[in-house]
Write a structure and sequence with these properties.
The protein is an alpha+beta fold and 274 residues long. The protein has helices at 29-36, 73-87, 173-181, 219-231, and strands spanning 2-10, 13-19, 45-50, 57-63, 68-69, 91-96, 99-105, 110-116, 138-141, 147-150, 152-155, 159-164, 191-199, 202-209, 213-215, 238-243, 246-252, 258-263, 268-273.
Amino acid sequence: MDIKAFKMDGLGNDFVIIDQRNENVKFSKDQIIKISNRNFIGCDQLIIIKKNKKFDAELEFYNSDGSISGACGNGTRCVAYFLSKENNKKEIIVWTSSGTLKSNILDNNLVETEIGAPKTIWNEIPLSKNLDTKNLNMKILDKNNNEHIGGTAINVGNPHIVFFVNNIENFDLKKIGPEIENHKLFPEKCNVTLAKVINEKLIKVKVWERGAGLTKACGTAACAAAVAGKINELVKTKTDIEFQLGKLSIFIDEKNSIYMKGPVSNVKNIEIKL
């Protein structure tokens, strides 16, 4: 089976995008895993674009382990840019299982997407029991086995936990990430972010993404870090989140709705032989 597809990324957070608006090819979990494998095509997430009568498109997100993801901020921004090239629209609205998302296409490959208001109540994360989501009092160890207690839980279309630490490089996220992702407290698993507040307008992060592992960037993790920083009174309503390859700008408005702005790559045509 030969499939025409596209490759895009947002700050290195990369996606294979398959346009199914005029076709209806079903992909098995094994096929999604194969496409995502970096020895084959390789990506953090596979995105399927489908027709939607009300909006510009409908999106399905799949993690590299074949599991479904409810939301993908950078992926949404990439698809919005891709769709805007068809008819030069500057505003793109897509439907996802986490709700409708509106994106504005700006100059110089910048795209801003409104993610909506975060969820911070324990059963909306969801957690397996009623806890204070501002501080879950979860223990993580740094590379010298020093304990760090904390963790702020937030849902921004998918569940996240954010640990504010003094130095993100002091922690082995490859070890900590899967332990927290699969912790019994998170029945739907979770994304794990280590965050260092540089100042009230800048947070530096490293992310373990649920179902994908270590990623160079993650849009919803950026949103979660900004919200967690605001909840803990560490940053202002407008914050830059710094990843390995650049920054995403996060703004939280008076209605608590989150806006994420950052660059996306150009569209690359690829062919997948399954």
